[in-house]
Write a structure and sequence with these properties.
The chain is of the alpha/beta class and about 270 residues long. The chain has one domain: Alpha-Beta Barrel (TIM Barrel), CATH 3.20.20. It is built from eleven helices and eight strands. Strands 1-2-3-4-5-6-7-8 form an eight-stranded parallel beta barrel, surrounded by six helices. Helix 2 runs parallel beside helix 3 and helix 8 packs parallel to helix 9. Bound molecules: 2-phosphoglycolic acid.
């Protein structure tokens, strides 16, 4: 069965109010792709009919947001995002882009606090919080990334680190607005990363929900692949996957979306056992 046959339907599904059964599947392209590559990827996504339970999103580099949003418009099924934005609306901030600017380019979602930004670009919890407020002020959906380093995990501080990051990110944010969270252990991300085990993900996701509230979807990211996607999606509290390398080509993205479109297998003995 190909992705096209198992979850095709008319591309008109705009999920503005995700339900608890929505499965998020998204990718950040990080610092990859020319405009031509971005356009070609987006055109494939534009031709897909998404399963009702799947909410796809794609986060191009800032240079390609407008190009991708021309192909995947704001009233379409696929949410287009930005990888970062400044917390001020405008001003003398050379090299930065603001939330109104990425929104103007077509972004509906804003990724905030990825560990690569925390590690290499002095992103602090305080700035993450300012950016969450800026995103909500302008009607963008914040996607806040949190995760502990290998050293913090080894020191037994994984849960404390992550819950502190979530608490700081959501400071002053009322309970109602939708905010996505992504648990992305630093040691699981990228070429040298090791995917987290189901136990590790389950523990942290439960801790995140305890501070963020049960209504806020928690995604997992970090070395997600076709091999581990089903197992991760089946974990209680995991509302979707945030993928890097495995979705940098569109076939990879569609294959993962296909996994997300399948209902979780029932436990032996059926749902009432
Ligand atoms: P990866 O990246 O899937 O390539 O490990 C994940 C991320 O940084 O969100």
């Amino acid at each position: 069965m190909t992705p096209a046959t198992c979850w095709r339907r008319p591309p008109s599904n705009v999920v503005t109010e995700p339900t608890s059964t929505t499965t998020w599947i998204g990718t950040s392209w990080k610092m990859t792709k020319t405009l031509a590559e971005a356009r070609a990827y987006a055109r494939v996504l534009a031709g897909v009919g998404w399963a009702p339970r799947v909410q796809p999103f794609v986060i191009p580099p800032a240079t390609a947001i407008a190009t991708v949003a021309e192909v995947l418009p704001p009233d379409g099924a696929v949410l287009v995002g930005a990888q970062d934005a400044h917390w001020e609306d405008e001003g003398a901030w050379t090299g930065e882009v603001s939330v109104p600017q990425v929104k103007d380019a077509g972004a509906r979602l804003l990724e905030i606090g990825h560990s690569e930004r925390r590690a290499h670009f002095a992103e602090t919890d305080e700035r993450v919080n300012l950016k969450v407020h800026a995103a909500l002020r302008h009607g963008l959906l914040p996607l806040v990334c949190v995760g502990e380093t290998a050293q913090q995990r080894a020191a037994g501080a994984a849960l404390d680190t992550v819950t502190a990051q979530v608490t700081a990110a959501l400071a002053g944010v009322p309970a109602t607005p939708q905010v996505l969270l992504a648990y992305e252990p630093v040691w699981a991300i990228g070429e040298h990363g090791t995917p987290a085990t189901p136990e590790q993900v389950g523990d942290v996701v439960a801790a995140i929900a305890s501070v963020a509230g049960p209504a806020r979807p928690v995604l997992y990211g970090g070395s997600v692949s076709l091999d581990n996607a089903r197992g991760l999606l089946d974990l209680p509290g995991v509302a979707g996957l945030f993928v890097g390398r495995a979705a940098w080509d569109v076939e990879g993205f569609l294959a993962l979306a296909d996994v997300a479109a399948q209902p979780a297998p029932q436990a032996p003995g059926g749902p009432y056992s």
